Amino acid sequence: MNGIKRIFSLLFMIWGFVTFIAAMLLVLPFIFIISALFKGKRGSDIIFVFLNIWGWIFCTLCFYRIRTQNRLVIDPQKAYIYVSNHNSYLDAVAIVLAIPSSFKPLGKIEMVKIPVFGLIYRRVVVMIDRASKESRLQSVEELKQDLAKGQSILIFPEGTMNRSDKPLTDFYDGAFRLAIETQTPIAPMVIINARNLFPRADPLAARPGVITCIYDEPVEVSGLVTEDLETLKAKVFSKMEALIRMSP
After folding, report:
1. Domains present along the chain, CATH in parentheses
2. Which of 1, 27, 154, 214 fits a 20 to 30 Å CA distance from 49?
């Protein structure tokens, strides 16, 4: 019985991969054209529509459902620094469909090497090479410019995918330092069940199901200074950890 289950899991994983790439190939020409014709937030807003189409196609054909809770605490007309946990490759799809407005994610430069995905990735992501101090400084400046134009951004404060048994791993300072320096509110969100449906450690355990994205109230940073960074980071960590622990 386990053997049959693994065969079905393998077939599902292959179907998911093919669907993921096919949906990207469908929207890729539009993203190329939009990125050439429109710059700044206007371009991001239009590209975001096609990213939603990509996410919807993938989830529909692979029988994933993205459920969002407390979405009304977010004002789509306002710029936020979204912060989220990161447990699975499915997080990218969940986030696109759960966040109600366009955003610029901060992502690792290594991801551009992924076929097809990398072509879209380089047009929608602020890339960072963590091994390069110059790259880190440049990415921070780019994020600041986006926020100044009213563009929301997304940062995984854990820095990389969580492979531990803990709900969250320690946060880096980046998102919180940026929030204080730009006086931009932080919008905490957690993704539930993505790791169970597509575990990085065992892709053959992939299966369809429901992914839940839960928002907490945005954290205002007005008046905070650099000395408040650790307190702010601990506050957001506590909020996100509580949301994860309270989830079934």
Report:
1. 2-246 (3.40.1130)
2. 214
